[in-house]
Amino acid sequence: MSKFTRIAEIDPQTNPLFQRMRGEEGFRTLSEVSLEGFLAEPGLKFVIFADDPNTRKETMDIVVIGPEIRRSMGSIVQSAWCTDVAEGRALAARWGVRKLPALALFRGNVYLGAAEGLDSWDGYLAKLAGIAARTEAPKRSVAILPRNAAEESACC
Asked: If you ran DSSP here, which 8-state letter would residue 122 be given?
């Protein structure tokens, strides 16, 4: 057996780290069902965009790191949310978040931005401080990728 073989499936409903995040840390679940209420809620909101921990091991890292980062932001954050792992990728795509896990900030119904992927403590704090200072949503761009090498040389 490889030392990297998973012994058991990770169930976000029963896993102690997820339970701690929802219980002790007060994170609420963001899903398609709760989305309307989430967007209607005022104030600065901290969101963890999470993916399936059975296919993306980084999810378990962000479940530990996210609440600590949120706590370090103090009282400027009015509520904390974590996406349902089954819907995290689809919800992230709605706002153009491409790399999970991600820590995002919303003010009211306005998406302010996200720190995508895993980062250092200082990296997260610097990115989130910049995002929290925004007053409007970031501009979104669409990447157009060439289909083959001939198109690539002709497109620029």
From this structure: H
